[in-house]
Amino acid sequence: MTKSKFYRDLVLSLVISDLIYALAVFVFVKIVRFFGASFLIYTIVTVVIGFLLFQTIIPIVILPLFHKLTPLEEGELKTAIEDLAKRNGFPTSRLLVIDGSTTSTHANAFFLGLPWNKQIVLYDTLIQKFPTSEIIAVLAHELGHWKLGHVLQVNIHIWLILAINFAFFSAFFDNSSLVKAFGFANPSPAINFVLFTYLTWPLDTFNSISRNFMVRRNEFQADNYAKEQGYKDEIASGLIRLNSESLDVLYTDWLYSICNSSHPSLVERLVAIGYQPKQKVRKRGLEVTKEEDEKGDIEEREIL
User: Which domain holds residue 35?
Assistant: First the structure.
């Protein structure tokens, strides 16, 4: 990434995020002022509509501001992806390649769009560094998220958490004692809401842990879905390669992971799909001789 692109993307992301946040707060305050104590149901409906609208404009308006998206070229990879999508009944409208290499060496794939109009997006780094079989396995994992309804689950979780927060806030939105305790003369929806968000940070911690727990479970299920599609070895080698490329940790304590990580570690995921290394190697990475194997003076590690 060049310095000019780094600062351009940084400024652009700050402007866009601030505009979205300001618009959300503006709409919320207007709803509270107009509907008063009955603002809860109208706020929840507005949030759901906002989420669907945001998911629609991301691939059309926001993403192209940061990255270049081009159609995937004809060839073996495109044919394999189309076959995978067809077997799973996935409503693919377009196959795109994103120039992720302009910002990092990270490799990934993801879906964009509404449920009836999906777009598959591949990082160019994924295409450059991964064989076709592993790319298909990674996409089978992503298809597992779609097939098992994980995207809807995450959205419902977010909506539920917001509904709970708004329900709690309904008891404070015109509370004069709250604002006076912080030196304000009179209550207002905006001031009360800001104070409320600061006072409920323990609830945010609980929400974060519950989301991590759900997403981690979904990752295990999506890995298993790829395994059931016949890509056990490919998804395992793909996960190892992804971990190696991103320089991520191999293993963390389970409790720390649940509290701080949205995805399970590589070792946890490999164990969950029942993966066994095909080859034994020395600790310094050289192939094991027959004599060393018989002595047992080795450790098991996958060679890609």
Answer: 1-66
